[in-house]
Amino acid sequence: MNFDPGYAARTFKSVGTRPVRPDGVDKVTGRARYGADFNMAGQLVGSILRSPHAHARITHIDTSQAEKLPGVKAVITAADLPDLTGGNSDMYDILDNCMARTKALYDGHAVAAVAAIDAPTAAEALDLIEVTYEVLPHVTDVDEAMKASAPLLHETTFTGGVDPKPTHPSNIANRSQFGHGDVEAGFRDADVVIERAFKTEQTHQGYIEPHACVASVKTDGTGELWVCTQGHFVFRQQCAALLGMEVSKLRVTSSEIGGGFGGKTHIWAEPVALALSRKAGRPVKLVMSREEVFRASGPTSATSIDVRIGARKDGTITAASATLRYSCGPYTGPWAMLGAMTAFACYDLKNVKSVGYEVLVNRPKTAAYRAPSAPMAAFAVESVIDELALKIGMDPLDFRIRNAAKEGTQSSYGPVYGPIGIGPTLEAARNHPHMTAPLGRNQGRGLACGFWFNFGGQTCTDLNIGLDGTVTLAVGTVDVGGSRASLALVAAEELGIPYAQVQAVVADTATLGYNDMTDGSRGTFSTSMATISAARNAIAVMRQRAARMWDIPLDDVVWEDGHAKAKGEQHGNLSPLSVKDIATAAAKTGGPIAGHSELVADGAGVSFATHICDVEVDPETGATRVVRYTVVQDAGKAVHPTYVEGQYQGGAAQGIGWALNEEYVYGADGRLQNAGFLDYRVPVCSDLPMIDTQILEIPNPNHPYGVRGVGETSIVPPLGAIANAVSNAVGVRMTHIPMSPPRILAALEAEQAG
Amino acid sequence: MVEVRLWSSLSAAAGGKTTLDIQAKDIRELFRTLAEQYPGLEPFIAQGIAVSIDGVIYRDTWSKELPEGAEIFLLPRIAGG
After folding, report:
1. What ipTM does the predicted assembly reach?
2. Which terminus of chain B is more exposed, N or C, with fewer CB under 10 A?
């Protein structure tokens, strides 16, 4: 990488302003094209048959009657998606999740699919498929699944990360451990030790747009996929691998995205649509219903977490430990590990230990959800931090400041921190007027901190100068939160031209080099770095062209304020050349002008936030209303402050829903009971106060403008902040998320009963 | 020679050692040497290991140099949303 990503202080002209986003008008007028808005000539309707059982062996599938139905053009089962994974267990799990091979592992698991001329015919065909199941005992609760007596999802699962390797299979797929020091010695030094057990229920990312795609596989082995995704390049890799296609022969275009939050980093229905198209010889559109989205895509883990923290009366934490059990669905993942890594990351701890267990259950495959796994761990830890502070008679905010991690602290997950922002967010919270605002009757205030890693990754951009001097910026990260506006600002900043002169687009997989998934809060961080690099390369070309136009040495040409300028008194009569001047002459000076960049954007820098929340709890109904909410978070440099604030507010809003209402409810039969937005209640505008935000800008030393990712950290503190607020309002420590009215009433009644 | 610290699961695969002294000038050499000297680490390396250098996490940059005296910490490769 011939590019120095190091931070250099500068005065910005475009970055930090708030122009209108280029996709805004299309989105508010209905013109924007989402996953289901694309159509191909002759396309069929795809539909998936799903298991009604939580756990069942598939003994036979008879598709003959469905295949005979007029209008049905293809019926597929796992036999049409042969195992081409070559022993790659991760890919095999993805394949098995897309279409069950021998066992249905959760209510909603795909077992067959059809492509037909219209939706009624497809539905009728699904009814004609006869699946013979041998129903097996199931387990959906994370703690129950860990018991030796629990039904086994896989006979081949032996707990990893333990030595010696277990002799019996179990649903505990893996154990991980982090920490340092001697926690038992630390607890002996403590004056007060608080130990509590917590549970959080499974939630869905709740993106408004369901999964949708249009697939077309032609007889020459080439294919196209139009899809709603957070990473069309990764989708291409995975779909091509599962279908046995050459990567370059599958062209994937990402649609606009109506929310993803991690749930659209995984393929679900896309390989099925491609396989249907391949078999039918026609394009296939496959759109998941809301019920299918809930039953068969991306929930986060349900968890069971024990936390123990000890402190001296002077407010110093002496030891902290946690055991975290995270449900993974039927396939293992890194979820408990991430919880274990992040649980205590906000604090400077001499003795700390966290242990994570990945637990297999008969629920949909767990997917990433915005700072995956960190919110649940933070809820448990921040609850105990609050309780401990109050027990030793210290203000919870002061207690956090006293124990906050800082530069030089050995993090709980291992490395020593460089410059970090937890201290400044806490200080900003202390000085915020929210902290001293009076509270009313039945109201309580809570505070919590949160941490997320952030990362970068492989990134490629093209910056093309048009003949009229306008600029097209082609990027490969999906615009999940206004990044086209932000990246156009960055290009404008670097080139020294107005924002309106730059048009940013998301390129498809055939027209741009590979880009990693848009996750890990990396979209603006990584692609702005690549954009700066591409713009600097374009500037280098434009300087060369200006030198040719003037017929002077290249070294005499500098780039300032969007113009090539000839330096030196001998060139005093040469007027500066604008981008347009240079572009207009391009045909005669060497042809098209562009800047390209391919890089790995590492060094994202860790991220911290502090949230303050006021709630009011109705003691008769247990209903909770959030009356005030403030987010304080470090952005490094806010490229487009409105969209940074949007990320802060969005994370808080999702966290409020998670904390108060949202949960997967399973019946005794292992079937999901509330697969719809009527019964699974996400917060709507009338449920939320205006969420106040405060952006801190502590430059990231590993980005030219100091940018940090901001997309995920904002969902980490809300569960803890709201739990502390509710606990303070009702006088009872709340330990089970969501704190729905029945749970709050039950906690109050239990307290009154003594 | 750099001192490399391992997270606990990796430590178990390296015979219980929490710290290793490795002759490596960059991340690529580090992984190559680790795989040679500690075959138990190979599956982890194949799956993906992140390298923290003085607190900054690198996931993919083989050419990143390991400065003498820097804190080198190996971490699991993490997922994001």
Report:
1. 0.93
2. N
